[in-house]
Amino acid sequence: MKQIAAWPALDVLDRTSAGQVKRAAKAVFWAVLVGVLYFVGARVGLAFLAKPEGVAVFWPASGIAAGMLVRLGRQATLPVFSGVFVATIAANLLGDRNLSLAVVFGFCNGGEALLFGWLLARDRDGHQFDNLKGVLRFFLALALSTAMMAVVAALAIRLAGASHAEFVTIWQMWWASDAIGIVAFAPMFIALADRPGEPLLREEFLEGTLVVAALTVAACTNCFTSSLDAAWWQPVPFATIFPLLLWAAARCRTIFLAVGLMVVALVIVLAVTAGHGQFGNQSIPIGERVFAARVTIASFAFCGLVLIAVFNDRRTTLDAMRVSEQRFSRLAATAPGIIYTFRLDKDGRRTIPYASPTLTPIMGLTPAEVRDSADAAFVAIHPHDVGNVNARIVHSLRDMTPFHAQFRYRHPTRGEIWLEGHSNPVREADGAVMWHGFMQDITARKVADARLGMLMGELDHRAKNLLAVVQAVAFHTAAEENPNQFADTFNLRIASLAASHDLLTRSAWEGVDLATLIRSQLGHFAHLLGTRIILEGPAVTLKASAAQAIGMALHELATNASKYGALASDEGEVRISWSRGDRLAIGWIERKGGVVAPPAKFGFGHKVMVEMLEYELDASVGLDYASTGLVWQFSAPCRAILEANCAIVLQGAP
Questions:
Q1: Which domains, from first to last, does the chain contain?
Q2: Cβ-based neighbour number of residue 99 at 10 Å
Q3: How far is CA 125 from CA 194, 368, 453, 627, in A?
Q4: Mean per-residue pLDDT pooled into runs of 10, the chain (654 residues)
């Protein structure tokens, strides 16, 4: 059972002494309040006693007790029972009943409220009028609780000799009076918890007050001015009150209709006892008039609460749908594609009844432009792909299988893009077919696939070139070296090639910095960099093809220097410098390494240092075996070996 803010201390037990005192004070407060209200209702009920049974025709106190218990919650069981018990005894003693019978009636009335609340509490939402189930459970609970306590009360009355009427008659009068009291008053207290999180607006209050006033006027008019002698007047109560109940249920909160029902019940009971109108016709026996009044009150209450349940259930459904639509709208607005519904009528008419807001940025169309006709979307499909799209739609329609297609689309501002659609067909009752699905922009994926294909082709090309280089290195090394030296020389040259390849891989084959390339090829002499090996030159980024060729040449130069040149002694020096202009110039100059002389026969090293560079890079290469040390000069056009064009390179030339 849902709790309300009016009983917080009964929900949370504070174990401190101050909390216990506060909780006890609240319990006493509610017991006193329930007792006072019950006493007032009991005095009103005792004013309408049926003769000769001596049972109240109308017992509003039962509705007050039951409604307050449901309103406050199960934790208010003891305060409500105590207040009802004491108030019943006081009301009966003042009504000239004996003490023992008053005590029994106190237990009956208190037990009736507890049984009613317990029956409703078994259903989590039973005490609310949000659906028809809640209304039916409300009437079932009041029927069972009042019927069971009426048995105890009737037995007490018969045993005490307080009435000479039959047991069944006493039971019926007690049960009916309590049941009508709960029907008339309990909904008002229960409805106080209606929509606790929504403040009552001024317009709602004014409209609800107007409805209650209209119900009061209609009830008074029909009960105090009508006459049974005018046959045409008899349907007027129903003709005027039921539209007002419908108004209250459709437009107002439950509390206003509950108050209106209570007012109608009071007016009808007053008409019976005062002898006015249809219910006060003295020519009709009092028993029949009381029965008619009870049936009328119960009918109005049942119809009113059913209307409330229907409209509250509708409001709950609409609120849930509104929340669901808001969540779906937020999801659709942030989705990476278009959530759409495509409809194909039997006559071939194509429409898109729903498309998420992402339709505009992706396809350049607004949902309104395709809602009544999808032609604007189909016209923009690439002519080479529209046939395939239509064929897939026909196939999906024929076999009722999912639709899937990738196609080019001519966007009004972005140009040609790629779209991919997935949807499932559903056949409608009118014969049309609806495809519900998702469409996304896959242009980036298509571009990436094309780039990947190009990269795979380039990788294949470079792998073949690399294998050709390895094959040439192996062939020439084997031709100029004896078998004992072949493995070492071949491994060193392959390691040089691998170092260049490693640099290219790390840079995604987008070029290699020249200084970094030199350091990688002189890895065995890293301890000499900055002392005996001097590097001088600006930042230069070589193309992948140039990096591999220049790297192998630098490796051969370093190998020869370590065997025969400047790096073979402890005093030799190597200066590697480069500059750029229209051409990139690289120089390798050895000093203090002893006298060098040209070899009697040029081998593969000379091909790598000179011939390969001239052939692959359109370079000019000079090799001078000077008496002071080897001098290697390289010069090639920027456009052939640099990643940046010459104009950009020249901006940073020294």
A1: 1-197 (1.10.1760), 198-334 (no CATH), 335-441 (3.30.450.20), 490-641 (3.30.565.10)
A2: 10
A3: 12, 43, 63, 107
A4: 39 55 83 86 70 61 86 83 87 78 87 87 60 86 90 86 80 87 88 73 87 86 62 59 85 87 85 74 77 85 89 85 82 82 92 91 92 92 93 93 94 92 93 93 87 64 54 57 63 61 59 83 77 90 82 81 81 91 91 76 76 85 87 90 51 30
